[in-house]
Design a protein that fits this description.
alpha/beta; TIM Barrel; 8-stranded parallel beta barrel; 4-stranded antiparallel sheet; 12 strands
């Protein structure tokens, strides 16, 4: 899981477009300083500013997924080496399938990135052939068990393999209406993302007046991702306890992790051979 970073929502930051652009640049710099290799950002209607943002990302070794690109913007920015994908649709599960199919078919820039929020009962496998990278949202805290993330992302990995596409997780860093996760819960969710074999991970960080970077949650996320990348490589062999609330994942390099998948999720232990 070498690609990780923040899913920034620029329209959440109050201010003028110039202020929003400046905030994006500050946050991208902070993300790079924290070791991130990936960012999901908005094109705010200023091609020159977006190109400068991509230049900054490239100089720091980061890849960018961009949303809100019009046809002319795509033609202008498509060849930039930092541009990993165009974010065609967010919350694709909330749109009619025919509408999502039309959006993806009309898109001239590839890879395409498509984000959706599946449920335990519906993995929305029909979306996977529509784009080259699928983002899978799992915002479980504080009302659900982390087991839900494990199940959603395990099925997502299977769907992606069947469609021969990449799959990124969208994990929770901020309150989604009921309270923010703790540092331990964030760390546990990052390890679950690694154990389920995701190709990348974006921490959902609403871009508000406080910015996206510098909070305890953001620091916990980048530290956990760095820990995972330092200790693991490739896919893991995984098993659940009889009550399904303890995950054990083993990597070929000799690293084993156990994660509590309850509402009070945390990493139980990490062993190195």
């Amino acid at each position: 899981m070498k690609l990780y970073g923040f899913y920034g929502v620029s329209w959440g930051f109050p201010g003028t477009p110039a202020q929003q652009i400046a905030r994006q640049r500050l946050d991208l710099t902070a993300a790079a300083d924290a070791g991130c290799s990936l960012a999901h950002l908005s094109h705010l209607g200023n091609v020159k500013a977006t190109r400068q943002l991509l230049d900054l990302a490239w100089s720091r070794g980061m890849s960018v997924i961009l949303e809100d690109l019009g046809p002319d913007d795509v033609r202008t920015l498509a060849s930039h080496p930092a541009l990993l994908a165009h974010s065609v649709a967010d919350d694709a599960n909330a749109r009619p399938l025919a509408s999502v199919q039309a959006m993806c078919s009309a898109e001239t820039l590839t890879p395409r990135y498509l984000s959706h929020g599946p449920t335990l009962d519906d993995s929305q496998a029909e979306l996977y052939p529509l784009a080259e990278i699928i983002g899978v949202q799992s915002y479980v805290y504080p009302n659900e068990q982390l087991l839900a993330s494990y199940r959603v992302w395990t099925q997502a990995r299977s769907n992606a393999d069947a469609a021969e596409v990449r799959v990124f997780g969208n994990s929770q860093l901020r309150s989604i209406g009921w309270g923010a996760p703790t540092a331990e819960q964030i760390r546990a969710q990052v390890w679950v993302a690694a154990a389920t074999g995701l190709d990348g991970l974006l921490g959902y960080a609403q871009l508000d007046k406080n910015g996206t970077i510098g909070t305890g949650q953001s620091k916990a996320f980048t530290q956990a991702c760095a820990e995972v990348n330092a200790l693991t490589s490739g896919r893991a062999q995984v098993a659940l306890s009889p009550d399904s609330l303890t995950l054990t994942a083993n990597w070929r390099a000799g690293v084993s992790v156990q994660v509590d998948l309850s509402e009070k999720a945390h990493v139980l232990n990490i062993k190195r051979r």
